[in-house]
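Write out the bound-state structure for A2R.
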Amino acid sequence: MKEERILVTGAAGFVGRHMARELASVGHHVIPSCRTHGPAEAHILDITDRAAVDQLVASIQPDAVVHLAGLSFVPDAAKNPDLAIDVNVNGTIHLLRACQTHVPGARVLVVTSAEVYGLQPRPARIHETAPLAPSNIYGLTKATADLATLRWAADHGLHAMTARPQNHLGPGQSHRFVSSGFAERIARRSLAPDPLPLKRGNLESTRNFTDVRDVVRAYRLILDHGQAGQAYNVASPQTTRIGDLLETLFDIAGVPAEHEPHEPYFRPTTHPPTLAIDRLQIELGWQPTIPLRQTLDDLYAATLQHLRDTGAAG
Ligand code: A2R
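---
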């Protein structure tokens, strides 16, 4: 494969770090950009700064771009809609415009979210052609960024595509997300036993989880072989009950599964829609390869190691 120079925005984030490794593993040259800090070679770029985005794309002339910079946590977007719109919508448009101007032949993958479809289950599997009906501000910003990307492909001939992932998990994710949060609290208990049960919210919701390493492989396949102007759902064939996730992590840790409901953590039960992933599977030959148990094993091991390394246990 020809070595390409690929700009990865949001490179210091959870997915960004895995993405850089995935691209490098097949021989690409990764050019990371980060908001504040990152790898030594990273370009510091605030995606909301239109002139800075334009200047960076003009100077590095990437062959391709993976756009991961964004406000990624649903509650953050709800708390600060202006910022969410600025980062997720305007930031994406700055990048599309800069690519159109300076590297019109580049392939651009914009990562949005399955939240573009809304969280309510629908009777049938959701294909990429389904109407977008976000049910929160985060989904609204991602739906807008997604439509803008497809618009840029249609109107300006940019080889731009979108990926609409459901939940991903794996080593390195912020503890604000459910699986990493559970892993961190259980790992602490394994290092310093706690006589009180672990406090948790509603266990009855389900989510569709894919290992982040399978997710970034999907992104690479889309970037390399995806069709301009198309969206790609990224999801696992099965959903998982949050309670089962918790029980599995207790089992992996070898810590007694003692937990109790805690009112402030409670959210209503929700179930994700079922996404059709035929486009990714048939067109691009992608399959998830890492079973959930393996992902949780790796997540737990990395969490425990991190607590030991940083002396943060106890
Ligand atoms: O805020 P920081 O320093 O943690 O940087 C985050 C970065 N980011 C920005 N980069 C440039 N300009 C901004 N104004 C800006 N605001 C935030 O995006 C962080 O390093 C990165 C997002 O990484 P995570 O929060 O770890 O999200 P994750 O799971 O890697 O998701 C990547 C993308 C996001 O667009 C999600 O919405 C989507 O995949 O699902």
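---
The longest helix spans residues 81-102.
The mean pLDDT is 95.
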